[in-house]
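User: Can you recover a sequence for this backbone? Please restate the input before giving your answer.

Assistant: Of course. Working from this structure:
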């Protein structure tokens, strides 16, 4: 940051009012005497003479103020603020009015108003309205004040005292003095310029909300010459006043009864601070023991004793301040002490802190294209000796992998390579120079960043490195408790330490008298103490202006920088850390015109500037400051800015030819209340996550999208929007829970119901497909066929290539599983003809699996079933078909498609009785499915592995091991059915029965094959029915006296196989018949 840059212009409320009154030349003299708008109205002519103001300027100043107290510039949209509201009303005004002449009554009311204005302004209040014989005043406006509630109570008591000295023209029922009733309450209001009253069309700045109403009702309950306050004001003034509890009272127009307190008097404590200057940074107070311990760990790191430290504490405890102090004490430059910042906006963005840290290290510039950035990465990787896989993983992380070879491994392998590369970079850096690596706010770390930290911890024991990880309570580090990990919980400051902090902030020679109040309210939190003390010191004329909350602290600073205040609020909408160029883009201003405001906010310690060479970035010094800025916005302005940011994100990415992050656009569209737009961007974010195999992330986005869709007005567009989200949610559930899970049915059933209500024919195919596949996988082929007929109708109505593609692929599956295997080749040819590769690969995100792969797998199985070829030539033909399937599955780089091909596709090897190949495929499929959370494919692969082990043990003559494998297979079938799946269960049960027969368990086998036949008949899954009958016949033949029955069952099996053109099953029946005849002699 350039410390020689010119200071931002003074835009204090005093300067603003003087400028509007044409008296700006008086600003230096008034400021020299610590005069601001809060005391300007209480100045007498004698006071102005005393400070040396010339006669003409004295008259001009007094005349200008007499025209009305200071009014801030009109803000048509208003602002949210916490105010303390005072409502004061003359007691017995009706009686006084009736007793006096109109002229006398007028003089009495004017005298009361003059006294009220004098008292209220002297205590820092702003008179908002004169309401007949009442006065409405605000405390904490236009400048936020920590002691606004205390000042208001003091003013109320002083107003009651003033009534005793106010002369009255005549006695009333023996009374010779006026009385007043005062009601006070504190709370959130909206300040807005309303109405056009008085000469020149002046607009009043009124507090809108229930707080003024409550203050008025409290006034009505107050006894004469008394001040009544509400609960909120009572909590803020604390022990500074003595109160009497008047109990709980219903207040007219207020929903809940309120407790009322009568102020009896002051307790003797005050809130007054002297003028003091504060620098841009707060000093570190305390923490000497903790810092000494950290320094000792650094000395160990210098000797190769690598260590990790978990630095925990609640928000505002001073974790980051300790880290920065440690870096300063160790004299470490940025290259030797890098910092990685986790963010609540990026908890679903894998390795976001590392991506941003690496971009900073590489010096990426905003104007760079991806090719030059990739060249920089290549140079770094070459210099660091990274492998090709590690370099490719880093390129993917940095989004500069366009044109590179597609990743050939699994997502887990890619993440492993990426983490290995990142750890390798850290290790090489540490060996070049001892390293202090800081990871901030790990409670917002994504899973990948946590894995990186864990990998680092596991390897750093012998490195010259110290790893500091800061986090809030609740974060559970998986590496906590390891030998190289230490933990430090940062404690709150002691009372004397908070006092020391306040003294150092405001200057040791001018400690505000009210520092004890800061110490009490800071509660040992350095951030609270720092903000309270800084606001007090920055109040110039009134050092007692201590905000009641951190939001008030922010507003107090921003009230002195109105231009910068708006910028801070916009930045709060964008996020915790903001690029200066993007801020300018959103504001539609040149970057140079935004720079002074950013500098002003940095100088006011609202923002922290990143002085990295690749571009200026600014971050809120604390997340709580960002929250305060955000909450000060009215909903309309906040929505408007969210919309501006959303549109700017899209335009900014387009100008740079970059891919916009749809989740970021969706978040801002959501904040803007653009529900339809948000829902569609959430859908895009989910589709992107599914493409990248991040199923949980996709579900999070889809749920957010559904919330947006639910807010849309009822109608076709809402139905269409929700339908798409529900259908994609069904796809996500298919991948994670299984194709036949209840969640899949719920999602697709709702999507189909919405599709049925509208006229969007083309979109209706998707939920129909989902429902059809759900029932097909459940094993209810007949019901699926009924839905298939509806899909035919929809495809004809839509008459689009995509609709017919989905139709053909689905009818291919229906033909196969219903036993009409002879029809499969025709359907497969249609899919091959309609499918456009590679464009249609994107359909994976919608249909969960590659449609062409599905067609080829089923065509391969159908070719085997219908085959009448010579066994000697069948092997090479089907090996070629399997090789084509496997090649397709691998080139997709889609884990589910590959896992499914290796499980269900590899069933070809089951048919061919090749247990070694089955086990190899199934092992790979199960590992892949387990790693990516695909329950259905994982369970299917487990069944296959158990069958392959049983066959292998039988071939080896290991009967006990084979029997154990069959028990495992039976359990695996149960797990498969727990996913909701019923499809191919008859096939699995038949395989189990056949293997049990080989182990001498024919009776058990008959039980399983009978169940297979029952399920087949009930659900209409007939593709394996002939084989189930054949196996049953073979099992019956082993039982005494059952041979005739076996022949009858075998006849039925062969006839069924012949009727369905299942040539392979016909040949199996013929072979079994020959075996039966041979056995019977």
């Amino acid at each position: 940051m350039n410390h020689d840059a010119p200071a931002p212009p003074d835009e204090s409320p005093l300067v603003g009012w003087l400028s509007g009154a044409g008296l700006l030349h008086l600003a230096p003299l008034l400021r020299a005497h610590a005069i601001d708008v809060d005391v300007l109205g209480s100045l007498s002519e004698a006071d102005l003479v005393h400070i040396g103001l010339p006669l003409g300027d004295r008259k001009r100043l007094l005349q200008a103020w007499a025209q009305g107290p200071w009014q801030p510039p009109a803000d048509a949209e208003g602002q949210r603020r916490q105010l303390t509201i005072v409502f004061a009303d003359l007691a017995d005004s009706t009686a006084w009015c009736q007793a006096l002449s109109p002229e006398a009554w007028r003089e009495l009311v004017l005298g009361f108003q003059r006294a009220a204005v004098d008292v209220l302004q002297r205590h820092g209040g702003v008179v908002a309205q004169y309401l007949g014989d009442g006065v409405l005043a605000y405390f904490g406006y236009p400048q936020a004040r920590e002691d606004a509630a205390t000042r208001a109570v003091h003013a109320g008591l002083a107003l009651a005292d003033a009534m005793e000295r106010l002369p009255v023209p005549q006695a009333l029922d023996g009374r010779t003095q006026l009385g007043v009733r005062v009601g006070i309450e504190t709370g959130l209001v909206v300040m807005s310029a309303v109405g056009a009253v008085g000469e020149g069309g002046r607009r009043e700045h009124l507090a809108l909300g229930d707080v003024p109403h409550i203050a008025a009702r409290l006034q009505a309950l107050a006894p004469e010459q008394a001040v009544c306050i509400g609960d909120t004001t009572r909590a803020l003034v604390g022990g500074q006043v003595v109160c009497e509890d008047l109990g709980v009272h219903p207040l007219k127009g207020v929903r809940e009864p309120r407790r009322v307190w009568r102020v009896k008097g002051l307790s003797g404590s005050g809130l007054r601070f002297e003028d003091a200057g504060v620098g841009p940074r707060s000093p570190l107070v305390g923490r000497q023991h903790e810092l000494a311990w950290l320094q000792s760990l650094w000395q160990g790191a210098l000797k190769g004793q690598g260590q990790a430290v978990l630095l925990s504490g609640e928000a505002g405890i001073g974790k980051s301040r300790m880290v920065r102090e440690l870096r300063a004490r160790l004299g470490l430059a940025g290259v030797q002490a890098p910092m990685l910042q986790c963010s609540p906006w990026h908890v679903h963005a894998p390795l976001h802190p590392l991506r941003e840290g690496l971009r900073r290290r590489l010096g990426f510039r905003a104007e760079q294209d991806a090719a030059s950035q990739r060249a920089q990465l290549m140079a770094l990787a070459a210099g660091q000796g990274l492998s090709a896989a590690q370099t490719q993983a880093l390129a993917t992380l940095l989004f500069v992998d366009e044109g590179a070879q597609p990743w050939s491994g699994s997502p887990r392998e890619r993440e492993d390579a990426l983490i290995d590369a990142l750890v390798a970079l850290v290790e090489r850096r540490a060996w070049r120079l001892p390293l202090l690596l800081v990871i901030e706010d790990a409670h917002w770390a994504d899973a990948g960043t946590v894995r990186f930290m864990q990998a680092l911890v596991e390897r750093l024991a012998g490195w010259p490195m110290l790893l500091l990880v800061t986090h809030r309570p609740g974060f559970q580090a998986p590496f906590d408790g390891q030998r190289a990990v230490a933990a430090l919980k940062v404690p709150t400051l002691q009372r004397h330490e908070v006092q020391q902090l306040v003294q150092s902030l405001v200057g040791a020679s001018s400690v505000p008298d009210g520092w004890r109040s800061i110490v009490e309210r800071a509660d040992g939190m350095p951030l609270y103490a720092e903000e309270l003390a800084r606001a007090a010191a920055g109040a110039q004329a009134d050092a007692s202006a201590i905000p009641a909350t951190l939001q008030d602290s922010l507003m107090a600073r921003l009230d002195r920088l109105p231009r910068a205040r708006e910028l801070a609020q916009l930045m709060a909408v964008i996020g915790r850390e903001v690029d200066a160029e993007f801020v300018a883009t959103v504001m539609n201003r040149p970057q140079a015109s935004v720079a002074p405001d950013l500098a002003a906010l940095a100088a006011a310690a609202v923002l922290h500037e990143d002085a990295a060479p690749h571009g200026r970035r600014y971050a809120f010094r604390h997340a709580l400051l960002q929250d305060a800025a955000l909450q000060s916005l009215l909903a309309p302005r906040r929505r408007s800015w969210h919309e501006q940011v959303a549109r700017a994100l899209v335009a900014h990415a387009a100008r740079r030819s970059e891919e916009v992050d749809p989740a970021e656009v969706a978040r801002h569209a959501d904040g803007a209340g653009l529900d339809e737009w948000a829902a569609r961007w959430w859908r895009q974010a989910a589709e992107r996550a599914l493409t990248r195999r991040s199923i949980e992330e996709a579900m999070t986005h889809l749920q957010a999208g559904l919330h947006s869709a639910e807010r849309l007005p009822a109608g076709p567009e809402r139905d269409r929007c929700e339908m798409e989200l529900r259908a994609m949610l069904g796809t996500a559930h298919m991948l994670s829970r299984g194709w036949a899970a209840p969640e899949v049915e719920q999602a697709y059933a709702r999507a189909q119901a919405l599709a049925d209500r509208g006229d969007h024919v083309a979109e209706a195919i998707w939920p129909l497909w989902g429902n059809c596949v759900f029932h097909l996988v459940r094993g209810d082929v007949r019901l699926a066929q009924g839905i298939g007929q509806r899909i035919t109708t929809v495809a004809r109505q839509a008459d689009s290539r995509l609709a017919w593609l989905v139709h053909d692929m689905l009818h291919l599956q229906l033909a196969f599983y219903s036993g009409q295997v002879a029809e499969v080749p025709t359907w497969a040819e249609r899919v091959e003809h309609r499918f456009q590769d590679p464009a249609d690969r994107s359909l994976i995100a919608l249909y969960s699996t590659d449609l062409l792969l599905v067609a080829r797998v089923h065509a391969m199985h159908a070719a085997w079933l219908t085959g009448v070829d010579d066994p000697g030539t069948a092997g090479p033909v089907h090996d070629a078909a399997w090789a084509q399937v496997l090649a397709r599955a691998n080139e997709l780089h889609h884990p589910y498609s590959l896992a499914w091909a290796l499980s269900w596709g590899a069933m070809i090897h089951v048919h061919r009785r090749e247990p070694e190949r089955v086990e190899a495929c199934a092992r790979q499929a199960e590992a892949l499915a387990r790693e990516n959370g695909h329950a259905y494919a994982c369970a299917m692969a487990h069944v296959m592995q158990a069958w392959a082990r049983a066959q292998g043990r039988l071939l080896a003559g290991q009967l006990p091991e084979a029997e154990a494998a069959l028990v495992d297979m039976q359990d695996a079938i149960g797990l498969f059915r727990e996913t909701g799946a019923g499809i191919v269960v008859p096939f699995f049960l038949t395989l189990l029965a056949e293997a049990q027969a080989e182990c001498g368990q024919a009776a058990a086998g008959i039980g399983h094959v009978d169940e297979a036949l029952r399920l087949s008949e009930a659900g209409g899954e007939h593709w394996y029915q002939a084989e189930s009958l054949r196996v049953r016949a073979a099992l019956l033949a082993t039982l005494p006296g059952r041979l005739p029955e076996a022949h009858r069952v075998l006849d039925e099996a062969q006839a069924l196989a012949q009727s369905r053109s299942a040539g392979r099953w016909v040949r199996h029946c013929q072979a079994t018949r020959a075996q039966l005849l041979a056995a019977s002699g």
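That completes the design. The two ends are 101 Å apart (CA to CA).
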